[in-house]
Specification:
The chain is of the alpha/beta class. The strands form 2 sheets. The chain has a 3-stranded antiparallel sheet, with helices on both faces. A hairpin with a 2-residue loop joins strand 1 and strand 2.
């Protein structure tokens, strides 16, 4: 049975999609909109949980998910409210990650923050696989601020024709200089993308 969701759920889903893109802030004079984007890629595990919606790049295990939910419930009891946001970060003391390498992937010194990568499973599949034009339009909001966008379809088995057409036909025709790169597309997803392009 398909999950029903409210306007509030959509607002949270929109916020999650914007976090994946990066380069958005509500206070431009004080923030660049890059902090969460780069921090979430530098540490080993990064999760934000708010309104029962999760922002993470990781294929987080059920154990970690249960830990986060228990900590959220514990936090609620401590502050006496049924709202709020929990942020969870984990990094090994022996991490070999190179911060410069992470920044160079998305923001080369001579170009700035020009590339982003969006895991479609985490950004668009909160309520099932992506099917609609409205989902595609929300995803494409602010794409023109980048030169290159990687759409990672790992673990997404299906997409709707309208979703694919809006991105790879309508949006791409209106932004011919923006490079859209498709990664890890399953055969059905790849076929649907090729079908709407043609």
């Amino acid at each position: 049975m398909k999950k029903k969701y409210s306007r509030n759920d959509l607002a949270v889903e929109d916020a999650v999609v914007e976090l994946f893109k990066g380069k958005l802030t509500t206070a431009e004079s004080r923030h660049s909109g890059e902090g969460i984007f780069f921090t979430s890629r530098i540490v080993d595990d990064f999760v934000i949980l708010s309104s029962n919606t999760m922002f993470t790049h990781n294929n987080i295990s059920e154990h970690t998910r249960q830990f986060i939910h228990s900590k959220r419930d514990e936090s609620k009891r401590m502050i006496g409210v049924d709202a709020g946001t929990l942020v969870f970060l984990k990094m090994s003391n022996h991490s070999k990650k190179d911060i410069k390498e992470v920044f160079d992937m998305f923001a080369p010194i001579d170009s700035g923050f020009v590339k982003t990568s969006i895991p479609i499973k985490h950004a668009c599949c909160e309520f099932g696989y992506p099917v609609s034009r409205s989902q595609a339009r929300r995803l494409c909001t602010r794409f023109e601020e980048f030169e290159e966008i990687v759409l990672d379809f790992a673990d997404v088995d299906n997409i709707g024709q309208a979703f694919a057409h809006e991105i790879f036909n309508v949006f791409q025709k209106n932004h011919p200089n923006l490079k859209l790169i498709v990664n890890n597309a399953a055969p059905y997803v790849k076929n649907m993308i090729e079908r709407v392009k043609n």
